[in-house]
Amino acid sequence: MSRILTADEFVASIEQAKATGDWRHMFSIIPYFDFLGLRLEMKGSHMICILPEDKKFIGNPTLPALHGGVVGAFLESTALVHLLKTQEVTRLPKIINITVEYLRSAKPVETYAEAVITKPGRRIANMRIEAWQTDRKKPVAAAHANFLVS
Amino acid sequence: MPEAFDLDQIQAMIDKGIPHCAEIGMKVHEMSPDGVVFSLPYQERFAGNPVNGVLHGGIITTLIDSAAGMCIFAKLKEYMPVATLDLRIDYLKPATPDEELFAFLTCYRMTRKIAFVRGVAYHETRDDPIANAVGTFMLQSSPTPKVRQFEKGKGA
């Protein structure tokens, strides 16, 4: 179904999201973003990604806590969205590696993340991403990632 | 504690005790102190690229993170709450659409408080990996009362 999309159509969707500032369609055509239910909100010049509360993301029901993999996936996705939004993109940037640091137990509630490009390069973008829940000053996880951008 | 784990019990523990792993359809294949093998059938809903259907890195991270925790339990031969401290993943090549994804993880060093793990994600063989992973975990991470051991079957 989703794989019927051509590369040109995909790039066109990215361009359209950039032009209108509405990323909902864009997020709906990336199957895994749709699975996560990702949303995007602008807070001034800051682009915040939102992972909704959902029981299906729980990894430890006793605590309870979000699955570490979901947290990692959310950080990676936030970095990718940041690249799509801020960089000239002719194809989907490819992740090279990511190091996720788990700082606090993430509760199964709505979670936020913001990415910054620590070093933009012609071919490689080095990113830092942080995720938090109720208190921005108490991140639940952070990550460093490298993306191949061209 | 029996030497070999009962894979049906492990699978039941995943299906009933770890909601996200049950949601994505994670399967256990091997469970021994030397390492564990888990898998995830290909599902289009986990694609990160809508043009070619290649899996999103995040779902590979999830399979690896889950298997990493399990390889610690396999080494300890009991269930203990563990918390991931960090996990590094190198994406060596894209996963092939429509192919089942496997992850092999081993706990290669364990101290009283910390477990060090490493492993790979692959389709056919570990010698042709899609991703390489290294991570550290804290043992007895929470004051959660010790959950039943695997052999008692009910899981977490």
Q: In the CATH hierarchy, what is the architecture of chain B at level 2?
A: Roll
Helix content estimate of chain A: 25-40%
Mind summarizing the main beta sheet of chain B? 6 strands, antiparallel
Specify the overall morphology of chain B: globular
- Give the mean pLDDT of chain B: 90
Q: Low-confidence runs of chain B (pLDDT<50, min 5 residues)?
A: 151-156
Based on CA atoms alone, the radius of gyration of chain A comes out at 15 Å
- Our Rg estimate of chain B from Cα atoms comes to 15 Å
SSE string of chain A: HHHEEEEHEEEE
Strand portion of chain B, in percent?
25-35%
Low-confidence stretches of chain A: none
CATH class category name of chain B: Alpha Beta
Number of helices of chain A: 4
How does the major sheet of chain A shape up? 6 strands, antiparallel
CATH architecture of chain A: Roll
CATH class of chain A: Alpha Beta
Structural class of chain A: alpha+beta
First and last CA, distance of chain B: 17 Å
The CATH superfamily name of chain B is Hotdog Thioesterase
